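Fig. S4 source data, part A: sequence.
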Amino acid sequence: MIAIVRLGALVGLIFLGSCTQHLNMSRIENRIQDDIERQGRRLTLKTVICPNRVAKQADAYFRCVGELPDGAQFTINVIQQDNEGNVVWDVPSSKVLINLASLEETIQAETKAAVGRSLAIDCIDTYRASKRGDTFECNVVGTGTVPTGRVESVLVKVSGSGDLEWQEILINGALETAPGATPEGSQSAPVNGANTASNPAAAEGSP
C-alpha cells in the first residue's frame, strides 16, 4: 500500500527498497508525475524524464525534466537519501510551473517586511502552471489585519514576462499593492524549491 501525506513544507519522498545496484527510473518517473498532477491545479503533465541509469549512492543528486502538454519543460531536483535507493524530489518555481508552497512563504515574508506582520497565506494547491496574463487568489487564513485594513485575500498575477506580482485585497474591496516576485533569480521568490510538497510514496528498485 502506498501512503501519501501532505506536511507543512512539502517535499516528494519515494522509497525504493531493493538489493539491486541501480534506481528504477521508470517507477520514479511515474511516481513523480502522479504526485505533481495530484497536487496541481487542474495540472496534467505530458511526461517526466529522468536519466536512464543511475547507481544507488547516498547523497547523489540528479535532475529529471517534466514536460507540459504544450511542450514547456521544468526541472525536478532529486537527491538519494541513502544507498538503498530512497530518494526525495522537489520542483523549484519557474516561469513554467509555480511552486505555490514557496510562493506562500514569499508573500508571508514580504508582507511582514512591509507592514511588520506576517499573514498566513494558503494558495490551496502545491503546483500550478504559469500562464502569462493568468490571475488567481490565495486565501488569508485567520485575521489578516494590517495598518491599511483587514486583508481578505491576495491576488496573484503572472505578468507578460512570466514574473509573479501580487496585491492584497482588503475586506472593503480595495487593492493594496504589495511587492512582486520573480520566480527566477530575484530576491523576492526562492528558486531552490526547498519549500515543496511532502509525499511519501513507494517504488521498487530495478536490476
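Fig. S4 source data, part B ends here. The radius of gyration is 18 Å.
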